[in-house]
Amino acid sequence: MTQMIGTRDTGEPIQVFFSPHGTTARPPRIERGDGIYMWDTTGKRYIDASSGPIANNIGHANASVLNAMQEQAAKVAFAYPGQFESQANEDLADLLTDMAGPGFDRAFFVSGGSEANESAIKLCRQYMLATDQPQRCKVISRDPGYHGGTAGALALTGDQQMHDMFGPLLPAHYKVPTPWTYRLPPNHTRDSYARHCAQALEDKIQAEGPETIMAFILEPIGGVATGALVAEDIYMSMVREICTRHGILLIFDEVMSGAGRSGKFLAADYWPHARPDLVVLAKGIAAGYTPMGAVLASNELVRTVANHGGFMNGFTYSCNPLSCAVALAVLQQVQTHSLIDNAAARGDQLATRLRAMGDTNRTVGDIRGRGLLLALELVTDQDTKARVPLEMNAAAMVQRIGMEHGLALYHRRTAYGQHGDWLMIAPPLTITPDQVDELADTLAQTLRQFDQDLSAAGV
Ligand code: PLP
Predict the structure, then answer these.
(1) How high is the mean pLDDT of the chain?
(2) 3-class DSSP state of 118
(3) Orientation of helix 394-404 relative to helix 433-456, angle to 10°
(4) Residue 425: what are its φ and ψ, rounded to 5°?
(5) What count of other Cβ atoms lies within 10 Å of the Cβ of residue 392?
(6) Per residue in 43-69, is it b (16+ CB within 10 Å) or e — as a string?
(7) CA-CA distance, 398 to 387, in Å (whole number)?
(8) Are 269 and 306 in contact (CB under 8 A)?
(9) Residue to substitute in 57, 147, 251 for testing ligand 1 pocket (most ligand atoms within 8 angstroms of CB)
(10) How far is the CA of 282 from the centre of ligand 1 (A)?
(11) β-strands 407-408, 45-48: how paired?
């Protein structure tokens, strides 16, 4: 008798709830990983060119992290922070706040970036209540931008497609434009558009009532929503000044850019004159070895909330010993192997190779980012910056060709693809100079085929 289990007999993915951004094709099945490489069950090897979704900062199968995982699990995998504190939690908080530097003295741990952003917002709200400003409850964020998939984080996310779908379920949100640097509105330079976008924040604050605004959140180096966009320095200075002047807390969402990926531990370190009040981390702090996210804030902010009844926020897995021990071991690897310096050096090498690809391939448009958080924007003409026709879903095409060539790239379409098509190029921070060349060579082949496929399609 034939057994009918789920969708097995139809050949559809068993994970029926996972459709990678509109495609129906089944991805290869993963077998194992080692360093920057991954192998599927047929034995085919892939270069992990994006650390998954920019998560796996230290490469696959790191022996020290696996040992730490095993040791902590054997002692105690789980203990609820409402009942017990743990050495792993304390050690992780110490190391993380040391690495983050002054102003980020306290850490709260959760299970990922969305939860961390939700927690940051709740911390801001409690701070406003504790400082007798109960009318402050609005959070301004940027469009486009990405802050996560849970309701609060999705409200902050600037993505029209998401809001068309989930808008009625989401809390109120307040958006200002993101300061693009590549395709600018008519009559703007990068500098003037940066100033225009900062002024838009000021205007939004005035329109809503400065006394009602609690926080402004931004990605200091963009992720998937903007393809590693780096704002002009003037934008950051103006934003900091505006927030300070209005008593608004500035949050940097460093879920992607943090933990050394940008060539500094925090991307915030690139703008010392514009330090945020809170930083949100996830992904790289545990490098995909365990779900982990964190909110960092100052002693002053946390003590104010603590003295006013304590932080009213918790999840079953907050601060759990196993995840803390794993993240601690990951950050120790980052330190021991000087991976932040490596991210800066290999990032420069990789960016140079990516730019050089543009000399021989018309589809290479903008190269953006810092360190090993890079993106390559696809065009059909470098001079006009003309986009590949929307319906071709260019980045998905390149991703598919890349997989054929053994290159695992990451792209995600936002806002119906209206802002452009780009690929995130963000390998593990452990990558060597030779491996950068290998990645770049394979990407060049991939893009050559993409260019040929476009030409064959008459584009
Ligand atoms: N914030 C940023 C900037 C992100 O890039 C992401 C995920 O890609 C998130 C938040 C959400 O993190 P998570 O998927 O761990 O919930």
Answers:
(1) 95
(2) helix
(3) 120
(4) -115, 105
(5) 18
(6) eeebbbbbbbbbbbbbbbebeebeebb
(7) 14
(8) no
(9) 147
(10) 7
(11) parallel
Ligand 1 centroid–CA 256 distance in Å is 7
3-state helix, strand, coil in the chain (%, to 5): 45, 15, 40
Helix (H, G, I), strand (E, B) or coil at 381: strand
Contact 371, 419 (CB under 8 A): no
For the chain, what is the largest distance between any 2 Cα atoms, rounded to a whole number of angstroms? 73
- Would you say the CB of residue 52 lies under 6 angstroms from ligand 1? no
Q: How far is it, in rounded angstroms, from Cα 144 to Cα 148?
A: 13
Q: Is the CB of 282 under 6 A from ligand 1?
A: yes
pLDDT in tens, 351-376: 999 999 999 999 999 999 999 999 99
Ordered DSSP codes for 389-420: PGGG-HHHHHHHHHHHTTEE-B----GGGTT-
The DSSP bridge partners found for residue 215 are 139, 249
pTM, entire model = 0.96
How many whole angstroms from its chain centre is CA 411? Answer: 12
SS3 track for 170-187: CCCCEEEECCCCCCCCCC
Amino acid, single-letter form, for residue 94: D
C-alpha torsion sign, points 117, 121, 127, 131: positive
Q: What angle do CA 329, 334, 335 make, to 5 degrees?
A: 95
The two three-digit tokens of residue 188, written as one number = 């703007």
Given the DSSP bridges, would you call strands 278-281 and 293-297 parallel, antiparallel or unpaired?
Answer: antiparallel
Distance, CA 206 to ligand 1 centroid (Å)?
29
In 49-167, at which residue ranges do the beta strands (DSSP E only) sit? 106-110, 138-143
Question: Judging by DSSP bridges, how do beta strands 293-297 and 213-218 pair with one another?
Answer: unpaired
Is residue 284 a contact partner of residue 260, using CB atoms and an 8 Å limit?
A: yes
For the segment 435-447, what is each residue's pLDDT rounded down to a tens digit?
999 999 999 999 9
Residue nearest to atom 7 of ligand 1 (CA): 148
